[in-house]
Structures are given as C-alpha cells and as structure tokens.
Design brief:
The structure is a homotetramer. By secondary structure, chain A is an alpha/beta fold. Chain A has 15 helices and 13 strands. Chain A has one domain: Alpha-Beta Barrel (TIM Barrel), CATH 3.20.20. In chain A, about 50% of the residues lie in helices and about 10% in strands. In chain A, strand 11, helix 8 and strand 12 form a beta-alpha-beta unit. Chains A, B, C, D: This is Sugar isomerase.
Chain lengths: ~425, ~425, ~425, ~425
C-alpha cells in the first residue's frame, strides 16, 4: 500500500495551529532554529530490511501480522515510513535474506518510494540451507581456509548485489569468536580474519567503503574476534583508507563511554557510521532513545562537533542506520519512534552553542559546560523536528496518522496475519 | 553570609519577561501546570552536611576554597542554597562530624535560615581518633560483641542528638561486609547485624523511622552485609514497622532497574526515601540527573504513582536527600544543579496522564505507553520549576544569581581558601 | 543405544594404575577423603530434557547430529550420561516439549536406565501452535485474566504430568516483564503474578515444592517480574512453605555475589536448589565451571555449610540441575564436563576445615581464612571424583570412554544427522 | 630487620618430607616439571613501594602497625618478602613519595637485599604541598599549557631518579579525564596528552621503555583520557617503539576479556607488562588470584604462548608488578599471597601442552581444548612453586615462617604502631 499525500496534508491541517504556536515559541528559544530545520530535512536514516518484521529472542518470537514476505514488500514498508516521516529515505539490504532477483526492477520500485540503497550487509553468522561448509566455528576467522574462502566469496557476492543497486558500502558484522577458554587462538583468529577481510577489501569499487562492525559478545560468549572499537580500528588501519569502524550502540560492555569512542574515531578519520538502538543490559536492540536518551544526545553532540571540525556533510559522509528488534511493538511504529528520538537528539546537538562550550572547557568551568549541554537537552525540539517533516511533505504526527489510516490492518488484509519476515 | 531578598527580587526582574512568556506557553502544553507548581513549591530536598565541601577519591582531593569548617557554617551554606532555590529547606547531619554542642543555638540558627533537621546519620565506617575499638572488620556485624555494642551505643547517641534537633529518622548506612572470600560467615554477619539493629531500633522514639540503606560494594569489595534491596527489606521486615529501606541511586550493580525496586518497596510499604545522585560506573556520586536523567524521571514516575496510590503526602512521607560528592565543582553550584534536575524530573512525573497510561498498559499498547512517558520527559518543565522558585521567593536562575553575587569569593574571604569541610 | 558395563570396566582397567596412585596421594592430603567419596557417590545432578540437543542464539543454531527426537530418546541420552558418570540419575522434563503419552511406559524406561524424574518445568514463555491466547505480553502477570488463567491451567497440567512420573517439584520460570519503560505497571504485574502463583500453589500435592526462579533480564529487556532473589523471596514468602527460590547462576546482574545470596536464602529456609551453568557476560548458559570455577566452589562452600548447619541431606534436600546450552559442543560431552566441574567444586567444599575457617573468621584473620578456601580449591580432587564414579560403576574418564565407543557416531547412525531436539 | 637464612632452612626442614613426596607425585603428572621449576626460579615480580602500607578507600583507612615510614624501610620490607619467597627481587618506586636523597646509598641498600629497581612511577593525580599549579582538571591533558609543562617536567624528573637507580622504564598512569558530560573536549584532551607524552618520550634514555597504563574509570567518573587498551595503543603507536601498553587487571569495564587483549597487544609487539591484582566489582585492588584465579591462569596462558612465539625471555622482556591495596590484611602477608597465586598461574600455563592445544583448535574440538586448559588449571602446582622457592633459598611456606618469626610484631616494635606509609 501507499499513503496519499493529500491525506497526510489533511491530517496535518488539524494539528497545524498548535504546531505553529509551538514552533514560534521554540524559535524564540533556539537562535539557529531555521538552520536546524534545514539540517533535519536533509538528514536521512536508513532502515534495515530485517527490521520490518517482529523480532525475537532465543526463547521465542511472537509474530505480528502483515509482515513483509518479499523484498518488494520490505521496500513498500520503508516507503510507508518515508512517506510518514520523510526521514527514512534509504534501505539497507541483507544478503542472502534479500537477494534482488531483478535489480533494475527493485531499483525502480525503490525510486518510486523515494528510496536509495544504503550499505549492503553480508551474513556469515548463520548457515543457509544450501551452504556447503558451516560457520559453526566462525567464518572469516575459521581455521579451515575453505570456510574462509566461502565466506569471502559470499561477501564479494554481496558487493556485486550492492553495485547493481547503487549501494556504496559493505557492512561486515562478524559473529566470529569463541564460546570457551581455549577454543581459539586469538592471534590466528585475528590474522585469518584480517587476511579474509583483505581479500574482500580488494574487491571493493573505488568509491565504496567497508564498515567493520564490532561487538562485545553474543552470539559468542567468551571472545569476539572483532570485539571492541580498538580491534575494529586495528583491522581498519591494516586494511586501508576505505575501511572504517561502525558503531552499534548495543555492542559494548556495560557502562562504556560511547561518545568518547565516537570522538576518537572521528579524530582518526575512521568512523564509518552508526547502528542506532538502545539497551539496558546487553545488545537488547530496543528503540533508539527508549532507555538512555541523554546518551544519544551526547553522541550526537560529538558527531556534530566532529563532522563540523572535519568539514563533513552531516547527511552524507557517515552511515546512519537503525538496527533494532521489535519484539513487542508493531515494527513500523517502533521505527517511527526510533527516528523521532534520533532526530530530537540531532536537533538538540545542533542547538549547542559550541563557542560557549569550548570557552567553558578552556576555563574548566564544569558547571557551565554541563549546563550548556543540559539546556540543549532540556529544550523541547519536537516542533523543529515536526516542522522539518511538514516541509518535506511528511506527517506532523507520523504514528497518529499511521493509526488513523489503519495501516497495519490494511497490511494484514493484504499480506495475511501469519507472514513472517526474514530477519532476527 | 546571607543573601538579600531584595537583591534576588531585583535579579529576577531582569529575567521575568522571558520567564513569563515561557511559563505561559508551558501552561498551554501542560494541563495541570498550576497543580505542579504548587507541589514543586512544597517539595524540599535535604542537603547532607557532608556535601558542602569538596569531595574526593582514594587518589586524592582537590579542595576548593571557602568550605564550611563548622556546623554553623554548614547551616549557613544550606541557608544560602535555600535562599536561592527555596527547595533545600532541610539539613541532614552526620555524627560525629557535626556534633551540635549547643543544640538549642543550632536549632535557632537553622530556624533563622528557614531550615529543619532531616534524618541524622551515624558513622561506623571510619575510626575516630578517640575510639576504643576499631571498625576495621565491621561494626554492627562484628564478631566481637564489644565492637557491636560500641557501634550500637554510637547509633543511640546519634538518635539523642537527633531528638534534640527535631529530626525524625535515623539513617544507618553500614559499610560492613568483607573484602575476600572466606573472610566472614554471611549468616552470622547478618544475624549479628540484625541483633545490633534491634538494639538501636528499641531506642527509637515513637514517631521516628529507621532508614536501612543498602549498597552493592565499596568500601568492601567482596560482600556487603546490607548489599541490596532484598537484604535491606529482610532487615526492615524483621525489625518492625519503623524500619524502612533507603535507596541511594549509586548503590546498585550495573544496569539495575531501580524504578522497579522503588515500586515494589512502595507496594510493601517499606520505602524510606532517597539519596539522590548519579553515576556511570559505580557509586560515582555525581550530580543528580547528570548522566541518566531519563532514569531519574522514571523513578519519579513510580514514586508519584506509588505515593498517590497510598494517599501519601509527596513532601513529607518519604525522605528526600542529595548524597553526592563534588570533586570538580563548587559544591553549592553542584547542589543547585542537583536540585534543579530532581525538580524537573518530579515535575515531568507529575505531568504524566496516569489514566491514559494505565489504559495503554491494560491494552498492551507499548507504543502509546512509551510515548506517554517520553512526551512527559520531552516537555520542557523549566518554566514551572522556575515559577515555583519565584513564588517561594527564590531566584529564577539560582546559579546565575550566585555567580552575580560572587558568593564563593565572599565565602573564601570570610573563611579562607584552605578550609576543608569534614566529609568524604 | 546403551553402554555395556563390561566395556566400561575394561576401559577403566587401562587407567587404574595411575588412578590408584593418584588416589593414594590425594588421601594423604585430604583427611576426609573417604567421606567425600561417599558423598560424591550419593550426589546426583538432574539433566534437563531440553539440554540434550544443540542450543543456539537468536542469530542461529548450528545443529549437530543424532539429537534425540522423542522423549524416549532423551531418556536414552540421560541414561548414557548416567552410565558414564553415575551422577546424572535424574531427568527434568519440560512441558509441552516432553509430554509423556504413556506415563507408565516412560517411567519404566527411565527406571531401566536407573533414572528418576526431577522437577517438571512449565513453559509460558513461548506460544505453542495450538494455543488460544498469546503470551507476547506475559503469562501469569498478564493484564487479561483469561491469559493468566490459561497459564495457570498449563502449570496445573504440568503438575499432573509430574505426579504421574513421580516428580516432587514444579519449577516456574517466568519470562514475564517488559521491554520498555511505561509498558507495565510493576505493582499490578507483581500482584497478578502472585495471584496466579497462588492458584497453582493450591494444586500442589502435599509433598511437592514450587521452585520460583528469578532472572535479571532476557527475554524481556527492561524489567522482569521475578527479576532477582529479593523478588523471588517475596513471592515465596507470600505463597507459603512449599514455595522456594531457585538460583540459576546466569540470571544475575554483572558481578553479583551469588554465594552470599545462597547463604541468606538458606538462612531463611527458602533455597530451592540450583540451575548450574557458567557465564561471562549475561545468561550465556556455558558449561558449569568453564569461566569462573572458583565462584562455583565458593557457592558449594556456602551450600555445604548451610546444609550441614540445617541438618539437611546433601543429595536430597535441594534440587540440583544443569541448565546450559550447547552451541559449539556435543551436548553429551558438554554435560559430562559440567557434571565433572560441579563434582570437583562439591568435593573441594567438602574438604574445607570448617572449624579452622570459623576460628579464622572469629579472629578476623583474613589471610588464614582466604588460605583455607584457596587451599581447598587448589587441591586436586579429580582422583576422588573419579573414584566415586569407579565405585558406582561409571567410567574413570567418561569423555574418553564416550569417544572410544564412538557414541555420537552411533547415535547419528541410529537417529540421523538432521534431527533437532526440542529446546532452546 | 632481616631474616636469617639458617632460620629459613631450619624451618623448611620440618616441612621437607611431605614436600618431597608431593613434589615426586607432581613430577609424575607434569612432564616438564623440572623446566617449570627453573622458570619459576627465574621469575621475579616487582613490589611497588606504595603497597607496603595499609591501603584504604575514600571512606577511610584502618592502618596497621609497623608500616615503613621511609624509603629505606620500604626496601627493607621488600627485602623481607624476597628473603621469604625469592620471587620479589625488584622494587618499583613512586615519585614523589619515594624520592631517593642519596641514590648511591639506596642502590647499595637494595643490593644488600638482592633487589633491583623496576619501573619508576610518576604521580600527576594528586597535588603535592609545594606544587605551583593544580592537577584538579588533569595534568598532561590540561587546557593550560603551563600545567601540562609542569606535569611533563615532573615526569622527566622521575626519569632522572630512575636513571640513578638503574630503572629501565617509566610507568605513566594518568587519572586525566572528566567527571561530567561536556567537561572536556575529548579530541583536544587526547591531543594535549599526546603532545605531553611526546615531550617525555623525547627524554627517555635509549634503553628505556615508557609504559602507558589505561584505566576505565576512577578517579574520573565520566571519561578517562587513557581509558582502554585501544586508546593506550593509539598513544603508544604515535609515540614510537619505546612506548607500550601496560595492563592492570582492575582497570577494565565489567566482563572484559583481558586475556584476548593481552594476546592482541603481544601480536602488535606492544604489551609492556602487568599490574597484578584482582577485583570483583571495579578497581578493587584485591590480592592477585583471590577472586578469579582461572582468569589469571588464562592470562598467563596467553602470555606464555605469546612470549614463546616471539622468542622472548619470560623473566625479563615484560614488566611484572603487583599493584594491590591491602585494606584488611597485613600488607606483607597479602603480597606473599599475591606472589603465590601468580606463580601458580604461571606454572599451570607452563604445563599446558601447546601442541595438543593447537591441534584441538585446528580441529575445532572445543571439548578437548577446554579440557587441556582445565586439566592444567586443576593440577596442583604448589609443590613446584615451593620447590622453586626452596632451591632459591626461600621458605617452603613463606607466611608460615613469617608468622613463626613474628615479623610484624618485630616491625611494630622497631617502627611503632602508628606509622603510616605513603601510598593509597
């Protein structure tokens, strides 16, 4: 299904008066409100194809209805999101869950929804039905060169699919590691992985990047071969300028200072981008901003500072993607909540008076430095985010409109209540 | 020194116009704004006497200047805070750091500053110079009955000081525990502690409460004899109705869901109150709301719901105290930041539409339930908190006024730059 | 398949000489070696029916071959384990994965393998194909009384199956909780759960126990309604004397002092028993003793002390079960490793000189107290554990014999390489 | 005081018979026992001068008696340790706590006790009484170049002291960081620190190393400027070949896989060495091996493998030091316990059959790989460690002899019961 521009407009009209009053007040408080709105309009967050279905845990999955069963339906779903918020204009495909049989047709369909193709993702953390060798003991790290080669070939295949669709980056997340002390030789595992990544890197087109994602634990529970930003950076440096480190918020040990990691990776010119989500305990993959919204803001504060210092284009020079699991919510509503939280954090970060902040830092005036960040965070930016949506043709209240239009019911009627999307 | 009402008023006038505009807009968004303001006016957060000096760690302390050297000066400092924010109308004394030699005079002095005496705190985690037996291996848990009796006697002494000053509760925080496997018999340590607490409990006046504080670790690094809410509740239940569990936000294992603990303790009628602070790693004792402001809001959301369900008086029926350490900030400014963050969280919690929230919960509408809380949190309540201060005679911007009046410089001139307050 | 006693005996003979030399030396070091051996012979650890297949994570499962496809085959597998180590003489069934169609025949089969039926386990954390109402938003806590009743009925059904088989306890592990702030009312969730548990409790036979298991997180990622030992104990106390708290080693927040929890639960007469496994990060469900063997010993040290103090029968008065997941190992080999680690920890705990330990504690001689525990832990108890197996008719080296007999290959030939056992 | 060789010998004689029996049995189990003994004889662990007094926390310190008040007495204490265990033949000084006034005399005194001088340690985490500028807001990272220069000059001064004493390395542990979001600019803090370190590095003698220590948190509670191994490695790589990363076991986030970090640092040729201690919660600075002895073994397993692969001399090519705090034990006894635990872990690691382990890894035989490590760990190596001490002239049971000789009482009589050693 597709949402109708006119319906959105009509819906917005009912909310417009209060919105404009709120916007007017916000503009009084936020001196660079117009600049922020423009940046918000430009900012797009990719939706991964595997996040459109209900997620689950090893204990089970409680499917919802109307999940997309095909790549076409996944694109349709992202199209719905983008129509609602005008901020989800990209889709990130996962191979082999989403192999496009007719790339041209898929590209045309995406284009119809205003979507481009973000990073393509390989999968060597599962065995596929037709797969010759198993990844039970790892893929790019495997002691058996034949397994490594199979995993390398798969990644090269993924790059090819990406080229056809117009992607410009390959995300490599490896579950490689070990579950027990003694199981692997850490050094050999690193070296095997590096050699495998080098083979993949060699096949990257000139204008592509390789995103090396790290994760502290799960599904391996003793060691991960790309386990933290230090390891990822080691790989990225040894690989070359196209390789960068991808940060997923849930992939850290408890209490890690992620914003500092971001800052250092930007200093090194090695930050690839982000997988947004939130977590309380482990890689919980909850809605972005649902647990620690201030942390999300602090991360954006570093991102904006780092991008501005390097003269980067906020919207284009880093990869932005949601990577969450939707176990107890309608996935589309959940994604809308994530995007909203990300946009708010970005807007707050854009409102920080950087000069005043640097002055406070130079003076070691900790009270004022804290106040500057807290004031930005405490300022209500919802009107600016809504205005950006409004200007771009989206809904003032995306979830409100989504519910008003009974979108999920319509999807269930179209697709059935028992479909299960590929993914986690 | 004392702050002048007229100076405050004059200062406020310069900020009034924007404040009133912001207040007016907030009232449009927050339907129960007036009720919230009234509750904020009534809400008082006690300041512990040991938090008025610069704090430190085992690695050192970098003192600031003008720290209060006497109990009288500590009362003066809390008086300054209260004059500024009209929300710090109570002081919590620590014995033996703050033994009042002339209780009547001290009470009169406090009264002059509009202050009352909150919970009194005993200290059996340090040895005092004149102390007969050492607490090196614990106090109320000690294997030696003579040490236990000494610690019991000290607590009874603290109660007596409290009675003289008008306090109504004794806070017992024990560092008792062990540093190494094998060091103590957990069961005997519990039983000794219980017996000791029972002796203290027996001396509590009719209208007093005993606050049993728990802590996961530090200064003992293997076990703590009152280590979590479950242990504290066991003690409180065995002691009787006057004994309740005190929650300090920094006293938990990583990732603990403190708001759920709060809810269950209220269900059991056993929540004593709070020690506010914030932390990223351990018992960091940072400014309230400085790291996880959303968690602070979620806790208040439970507190308000629980107090309302039980028909409790928000301002009086639980104990509210800041317990932070000020290692890199002026302690008075830091305390002002803590109070502001607490007030904001309280105001946000008061704005939650409880009926709508319960309806969403009944329907398992997770998206709406999350939205209700996030909307309350995202709404800018600063104008309501400022208005409450204004109405009560405080400063619209307490730190701004504090700096304008050069309070710290004046304190340094009065007290010297090398004074060191008792405390941590 | 079944293992042949004569083959085991013949195998043992080749290892006997060195075993006896080692045993003789150990007896010189461990004064109560004979008593320990006898206790080891008596000690049996139940095997859960769901642990006989390859486990997995939400990211995938890499099945091994020869997994048991039926309850009969699961009993056969536990029979193999028991024949090898003579310490796995009980099986714990999970309903609905293991519904016995003909209870008498199943009992007879178990008896043939020398097995009895341990606690029965209910499952309300997944939806079954034929289930009327969903547990997506919880079971015993659910806002809808019909869902609660369905879950209650299921538990009562499980009790009935248990009665038929000779079980004496019901383990209730609830995944109930919430994934997002706001999602549930903690108090109502607790009260609903309590009411539901009370209905189940009412159906327990006179000589049964109810084991209330707690877990800190997963599969819910914001709150768990039975989240820690304090909550479980609250439920158990409100339910009555048959209800006790079950401890699973992996179900805690980081760094929890589990041995202290055990000690306190025993003090309260409320420890139900154990689910053994090990973990580094979360509920990793690794082989017992694989990561923190000293912690396992410290837990047994408390268990032995507590059981002896209460005059309990080590082998019978608490529930002992392994609850691990075998993602990268042959499940049977992994279980043998777990049992070995548990037996070693138990033997070490039995060797502790309790009088000397209590004396050191009374004297606050921390150095000696630590030494007593470390000496017990550093003493090699493998010969005593092996001797216990030998006397009971098991294999001196169970994994050695298992591999020598090509058990897994035979199971694959019998059952096929693509069978997948029910479980996680 | 000094211990008498003859007294030690006499004491050993009483223990010799059982020792030799145990040694004989151990040699039957451990094929390379003789080689292990020789390596143990050669292995020396440096004692930091600040670990000879009772440690404390921010909540207090409970001093013991007879603490060394001068550098001479500290050397005497390490001499006592070395006489007892013949494994503590080096002392690591801390400036300014231990400034040698007459370096030649101090060297001669150390030589008399058979001691050499290990790494020298600078201190910019505290302000000294006579210090011009404060380190309240950092030292090498400070926004003020004058503070940075002061800290650089201090480090250069420390190098000079080290040269006089024969040290060959400088350990730089920085507490630099921030307590609150916003307080510092991460990038500038890194760059300032790097520039400062470069100035210090430039002053290193040709044959010296700089050990860059990292720490996750404390005394700063929001960020640390050298916070993890990744950051330390960044600094070390930018500095040059003399700079390496120092690992302190307590300086990590919860659950970090330290043995993997060790392996990767060795792979990069950038491991400096170790600060040994143990911890349950944070930087608890407990006795090495007191909480997680298996982890200690796993670390040594990587160390031995890595050193052997690189053809390194175990005893000389990495820095080995204890860095613990002794809050509830006699510091000398505590250090003896730490050295014993370290030696046992080292001996166990030396006994691992590396070829068998690598074969199991190549085959992904996780069960066997785990067994190889667990068997090494479960084997009782105490006789080998004791034999190494015996051969080198130490006591078979150092703590037993220490107590028999009433060393602490004698120290108290010599030095008094109220001395307090400099340190933490």
């Amino acid at each position: 299904m597709k949402l109708n521009k006119e319906d959105i407009q009509e819906y917005n009209e009912g909310l417009l008066e209060f919105h404009q009053e709120k916007l007017a007040f916000t503009k009084k408080e936020v001196t660079n409100a117009e600049a922020i709105i423009q940046k918000l309009v430009d900012f797009q967050i990719a939706i991964p194809s595997w996040a459109l279905g209900t997620g689950g845990t090893r204990f089970g999955r409680f499917s919802g209805g109307g999940e997309p069963a095909t790549l076409e339906q996944k694109i349709e779903d992202v199209g719905l999101l983008h129509a609602l918020n005008q901020a989800s204009g990209a889709i990130s495909l996962h191979i082999p869950w989403d192999i496009p049989k007719d790339a041209a047709a898929i590209k045309a369909l995406a284009d119809e929804h205003g979507l481009v193709f973000d990073a393509v993702n390989s999968n060597t953390f599962q065995d596929q039905a037709d797969q010759e060798l198993s990844y039970k003991f790892g893929s790019l790290q495997h002691t058996d060169p034949a397994v490594r080669q199979q995993a390398v070939d798969h990644n090269i295949e993924v790059i090819k699919h990406g080229i056809e669709l117009g992607s410009k980056s390959l995300t490599v997340w490896l579950s490689d590691g070990s579950c027990f002390p003694g199981q692997i030789n850490f050094k050999k595992a690193f070296e095997n992985t590096l050699e495998s990544l080098q083979k993949i890197y060699a096949e990257l087109p000139e204008d592509w990047k390789m995103f090396v994602e790290y994760k502290a634990f799960e599904p391996n529970f003793y060691s991960m071969t790309v386990g933290d930003w230090g390891q990822s950076l080691l790989f990225a440096n040894k690989l070359g300028p196209k390789a960068k480190t991808l940060v997923d918020l849930g992939h850290h040990l408890p209490n890690a200072n992620i914003e500092q990691i971001v800052s250092l990776l930007m200093m090194e010119g090695k930050l690839a981008g982000f997988h947004f989500n939130d977590s309380k305990y482990a890689d919980d993959d909850l809605t972005a901003g649902a647990i620690k919204p201030y942390q999300l803001f602090l991360i954006f504060n570093e991102l904006v500072a780092g991008m501005d210092a390097a003269g980067m284009n906020h919207a284009k020079d880093l990869g932005w993607m949601i990577d969450a699991s939707h176990n107890v919510k309608d996935p589309l509503e959940d994604l809308l909540q994530s995007v909203e939280a990300i946009m708010l954090a970005y807007a707050q970060a854009l409102s920080v008076d950087k000069e005043a902040l640097e002055n406070a830092r130079e003076d070691n005036d900790v009270v004022v430095a804290q106040n500057i960040l807290q004031n930005a965070f405490r300022t209500d930016m919802r009107a600016l985010v809504a205005e950006a949506r409004l200007r771009a043709g989206g809904a003032l209240n995306p979830i409100g409109f989504y519910r008003k239009m009974d979108v999920r019911d319509k999807l269930i009627r179209e697709r059935g209540s028992k479909t299960v999307a590929t993914g986690l």
